[in-house]
Amino acid sequence: MEENRFYHPENLELKQVVELGAQTHIHATKVLRLKVGDQFALFNGDGFDYVAQVTEVSKHKTFVEIINQYEVNHESLLKITLAQSLAAGDKMDWIIQKAVELGVHTVQPLLTERSIIKLDRERADKKLEHWKTIAISACEQTGRATIPVILSPIHFNQWLSEENLKTDNLKLILTPSKAQNINHLDKLS
After folding, report:
1. Same structural domain for residues 93 and 165?
2. How many CA atoms lie within 13 A of 47 on its CB side?
3. I need a surface site. Which of 14, 34, 120, 132 has the fewest CB within 10 A?
4. What pLDDT, on a 0 to 100 scale, did the predictor assign at position 170?
5. DSSP summary character for residue 120
6. Nearest C-alpha neighbor of 74 from the set 45, 36, 94, 34
7. Please, are residues 93 and 69 in contact by the beta-carbon 8 Å criterion?
């Protein structure tokens, strides 16, 4: 596995020459000081890492050639969904980052009666894009090649009535006000 990994949102193929995005170009050339001939990994969420070799660097652009690809299987066998009440400040960013690092498959932000944060549609869309960026950054750091799904915030009652909760899969709703401790759950067979 290459030491440096970057997300590239487009499809990638062997022998393809790719122009890096502006932020990736700046990080690769100004921070890491990569130059022609250097190699690093790109990923796009399809489950593969692509070895990219720098072929051209200019002031505003970097081009790389995809010289190899390999499947990355760092995903949990469990399809865990974290349904999390919106947290104030940068706590939600931290929660999403750590959830991705721990292998969560899906994050469902919830609007609850005690949520401090109130989002209108426009602000919710901006937050969603921000959280997706956090998830991608966490994937870059942890070596995950599949990007977790970050869903739009919904009300807690709506989430409880969703069809996905009506399956036979185990659901745990953790709340500090309940009498039963998680340690008292029956062992699964």
Report:
1. yes
2. 4
3. 120
4. 64
5. -
6. 45
7. no
